[in-house]
Amino acid sequence: MFQIHMGEIVETTGTLGEETKRHKQGGWAAQKLQRYEDGLASHNLRSAASFAIDFFQQGQSRRIVLAGTDETVSQFQTLLPRAWQAKVVGTIPMDMNASETEVLTKSWLVISEALSKEQTALVERIITSAAKGEGAAVGLSAALTALQEDRAHILVMAEGFSAPGYRCMRCGYLAAVLEGACPYCGGTMAPVDDAVEYAVKRMLAVGGHVESVPDNPALVKAGSIGALLRY
Ligand SMILES: [Zn+2]
Asked: Residue 186 and residue 151: Cα distance in Å, rounded?
């Protein structure tokens, strides 16, 4: 079991079941022995699944990649509770003795692809909802307003996006355009090189979620920033 966070392995643990053997010889005794071995294999798989569930819970795993032979992986997956099955983003063929580097490289490819799909769906949802005026905001001004009204649930921006703006020297209120004094406290608004950076800090400070999305023309067209709202 490997826990991967931000492209790195942060936790490694494992469990080995009892060794099973394949019996090639025929005969009644061999068949009986094979049944015993098959039972053991299924027992091993169940105990590995329960070990895995503990590992997922402890690491609060958001996405799961299963690796192994096709047969074992599909059997293993059916032993997971539905909630965890739903988090399986892909399966990959892998040898039990694969190196950490191989595990990381192959898994990260699958995770990145899943992440990219999730981000694309999120951006589409934000743009569609904002167009309907329901539950989302796009563009720097609208995103900053949502953020400061504590309505932003997820802040999404094009990777590397920055934009100048104004910031209240007294309370930190952010604005994309200057409209006199701070509407919250009457303080002086000072120009800042990057209002987006302050927006991200603010979002993280209140425990919100920030997604930096690469290569998404729709998001760039919508102003390179948006927010999914709580209500
Ligand atoms: Zn202010």
From this structure: 22
